[in-house]
Amino acid sequence: MFNKKELKDILLKKIIFPDFSNKITRLVIGVGITIILAPMPLKVVFYNWLINTFNLNSGELLKLSDFQSGSADYIWGFSLITVALLHNVVYKIYCYKIDKPKREKQNEVDQKLFSKFITMLPANSSSIDLLQSHDFGNSFYGDIIKNLEDVIIVFDNVEHKFLDEELETAKNSFIQKLKDFSNKIGIYTGVAGGNVKFLSCIPDRYKGEYHLPEYIIKQIKELNSTSSSCYYLYEKFVNQARNKLNV
């Protein structure tokens, strides 16, 4: 039996918005539309073929006059379209059930991978707080960046790809933006006040000055913007993973 989520997917994606991906569905719907819209001579040719085929296979006797009433075109046309849509629904449900074990296995793999990701980079970590709210006009603890770099090293490789394509795309967008942020940190920051544990965008010689050089202001703005983008992509990926993986 289907659970509520599966039933919702089938109703929305397979019945209300069918994709007509199989050839039989497209063919039969095309014939139905042709019957409704085609001029009469073409319909007569088709009806003759349909009658001969039916009589040959069933032993019953149909006549051309059975198809030539004013409403017959629409009845046969819409009947074929209805049959095609029903076929599409049955076909999609069959494929959905056949693929279910594969999807469950993929979900299991992705759940373990997401668990590893969220363990390394939980939402309440100092690293995420840095991305979300830190103003890089101020100094910050350098080990926080090391944690972000560890996440890049672990998840920017083929062994840590999500099998779900949408999740992998979301994760990769975050990792690539995080790499950009890490590169900017390496270029724009240095040790703050001789304390190797802290980093700052502002060189010691400019500490306490009200008017900073334009290039430093630009670098601070870039880091603030990039870190905010990282947080947005992190939040998007985590929410998407929780919805897809039910975790």
UniProtKB/TrEMBL annotation:
Keywords for this protein: Membrane, Transmembrane, Transmembrane helix
Transmembrane regions: 27-50, 74-94
Organism of this sequence: Proteus columbae
Protein name, entry field: Uncharacterized protein
